[in-house]
Design brief:
Blueprint: H1 2-19, E1 28-29, H2 31-38, H3 42-54, E2 58-61, E3 65-68, H4 79-86, H5 91-116, H6 119-137, H7 144-160, H8 164-167, H9 170-182, H10 192-207, H11 210-232
Antiparallel strand pairs: 1-3, 2-3
Length: 236
């Protein structure tokens, strides 16, 4: 248990330092140096480096060491990288980029869900939307249950699209929603219009109304995008 906790702690600390730019692309690290810096075993350092290599953030070369790779080589959809960026100085840019991604994919997912989802998936989406509204109207928008329900709703919407590539983005969207809450962008009492749009999207999916499902899902993410743009100060 201790080893797993140590592994997670070192991974987060090293990953955050790379994601934040403290260790810029081209920086050369050594296993010995990391071992001393973090006060852990060489074996644990190697395991952490392997994880970051799998994410495209590090590259090991003989007689060179471990090098930080360029940003464009990183796996931008890895939930860990997203979390590290949301915890760092680039949080505003990351939040805006992720919200723009949501605006692009969620309306399309809603349209597909209306056409493809099975009865159980449609029913589950309606249930989640109803619970989300209950929690929001009870001024529980900052509660862990609201966040968990919101994540479940959006993951369900993506999965119901029947497109495995869209469904695979569920963990990415979960990090967006978690990040918004952690940054204090979720009010205790969500806007009634947002709750209604969630319910209307679910109802349209359940009814097989693809056009309405797409339109109401777009309303949800458009409102969020406007809010995030105001917060980040992006005027492009």
């Amino acid at each position: 248990m201790r080893s797993a906790k140590q592994h997670s702690g070192v991974l987060d600390r090293l990953g955050e330092s790379i994601a934040s730019g403290d260790r810029a692309p081209g920086t050369v690290l050594t296993l010995g140096g990391l071992e001393e810096e973090f006060g852990v075993s060489r074996t644990l350092v190697r395991e952490v480096v392997r994880v970051l290599e799998s994410m495209g953030m590090l590259e090991s070369r003989r007689r060179v060491g471990v090098t930080v790779r360029p940003h464009e080589d990183w796996n931008q959809f890895d939930p860990r990288l997203i979390r590290w960026r949301l915890d760092g100085p680039g949080r505003n840019a990351q939040l805006l980029n992720l919200t723009e991604l949501r605006a692009a994919i969620e309306p399309a997912a809603a349209r597909l869900a209306a056409a493809r989802a099975d009865e159980a998936a449609r029913h589950r989406l309606v249930e989640l939307a109803a619970r989300l509204k209950e929690l929001g109207e009870a001024r529980r928008g900052t509660d862990p249950e609201y966040l968990a329900t919101d994540i479940a709703y959006h993951e369900q919407l993506l999965a119901a699209s029947g497109n495995p590539m869209l469904a695979a983005l569920g963990s990415t969207i979960a990090e967006v929603l978690t990040g918004r809450t952690a940054l204090g962008l979720m009010p205790r009492e969500p806007a009634p219009g947002a709750l209604e749009d969630h319910e209307a999207t679910a109802a349209a999916v359940a009814a097989g109304d693809a056009a309405t499902a797409e339109a109401r899902a777009r309303a949800v993410v458009t409102e969020v995008l406007e809010e995030v743009t105001d917060v980040t100060g992006d005027t492009s």
